[in-house]
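Board notes, transcribed. Complex of a protein with LMY7XDAE.
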Amino acid sequence: MKHIRTERWEKHDRVNEHRARLLISCPDKPGIVAAVSDLLYMQGANIIESSQYTTDPTGGQFFLRIEFESAYMDQFLSVFETKMNDAATKFQMDWRLSRASQRKNMVIFASKGSHCLLELLWRWQAGDLLVNIPMVISNHEDLRESVEMLGIPFHHIPVTKDTKKEAEAKQLELVGNQADLIVLARYMQILSPEFVVTHPHSIINIHHSFLPAFVGAHPYERAYDRGVKLIGATSHYVTDELDEGPIIEQDVARVDHKDDVEDLKRIGRTIERNVLARAVTWHVEDRVIVHGNKTVVFQ
Ligand SMILES: Nc1nc2c(c(=O)[nH]1)N[C@@H](CN(C=O)c1ccc(C(=O)N[C@@H](CCC(=O)O)C(=O)O)cc1)CN2
């Protein structure tokens, strides 16, 4: 019997074989949507979904996401790039295009905590998270069995303060050019600038607090000591500044005086895994545009 993932992927590929997504960011001015939609129309494409946002209609930054279909996508793309570059020059656009059927390769980094990793693996196994997972890398052995039982390679690379440089070199050698996206699923090691620069705005972390509160290590203990009435989780792109990268998604839950630190962690685990899964899904579906240290998310 075919695995449910395979069946869902085959259905997805049939629907998305002729679809592509165009993301644009540029200074706002009249005529942008008309120029882009005309370019698509003149090449026989049909717009399926279009979302836009401007920071200031009198001259801010404009953001556009268009999902479109073309019966002849290969031929369409061979011509589109040249014409799009002309429009991009005219409107000073940053733009990127991706084919909906081109599944991104997602490498996951984890430590000992399993909840965020397993949420991603479960959604992948169910065919709900449309990515390829070339490998999982961990600085501990604890999660090997959970990963390998799904047929995904698991690589254990221990990390200590003294061996971090060598460990990262091994990680990067393993990842090579296999990762369109790296997800830190409660990976508890700070990545060096030399690592982060290899995957700009393509490393997603889940921080176990409602940022900007409680940046860094042990947020639940600090939240408990502070007597908070809300805890939360934040998924963000990784930058050199710890837990300061562009936020993609957040959520919170109520807690009270009866909850101890272990209660906060238990309640928090549900928030973390769902926040991370939403952020990863939106990134994979090309719904996130980074602008400065913020994001625009066309959900
Ligand atoms: N360059 C970045 N790397 C990482 C980020 C980030 O935003 N930028 N987020 C962290 C995840 N994280 C909180 O969400 C976090 C993980 C680890 C630590 C920390 O102090 N780690 C120590 C080692 C702890 C240990 O050995 O158990 C360290 O790396 O020296 C703080 C925050 C992931 N990486």
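Residues 261-284 form the longest helix (24 residues). The radius of gyration is 21 Å.
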